[in-house]
Amino acid sequence: MRVLPAIGGNGAVKKWGFVAMHAAIAAGFMFLLQRFALHESQETSLLWALTFAVCAAGLAYKQANR
């Protein structure tokens, strides 16, 4: 089912908020997993977090445009 955008232009704000939320959650999850569960260095953990954040943002953006 397709959701109609809100009147007043709130649709763009909600879309970018959705994308940012997914990126932040993916980055946080990956950082915590790498740093504390897998005992990797901080640099490696941040690199993986950044990679997953970019991928999650891309997927969320594609979903928001469907």
List the helices and strands and how they pair.
Layout: H1 10-37, H2 42-64
Total number of beta strands: 0
Low-confidence stretches: none
When the domains are counted, the total is 1
Average pLDDT works out at 89
Decide which structural class fits the backbone: mainly alpha
Radius of gyration: 15 Å
Distance between the termini: 10 Å
The best one-word shape is: elongated
Major sheet characteristics? none
Question: What is the element string, with H for helices and E for strands?
Answer: HH
Strand content: under 5%
Number of helices: 2
Helix content: over 70%
Can you walk me through this structure?
The chain has 66 residues and is an all-alpha fold. The chain has one domain (12-64). It has 2 helices and no strands. The chain crosses the membrane at residues 12-33, 45-61. Keywords: Membrane, Transmembrane, Transmembrane helix.
List keywords for this structure.
mainly alpha, membrane, 66 residues, transmembrane helix, transmembrane, elongated, single chain
Task: Quickly describe the structure.
The chain crosses the membrane at residues 12-33, 45-61. Keywords: Membrane, Transmembrane, Transmembrane helix. This protein has 2 helices and no strands.
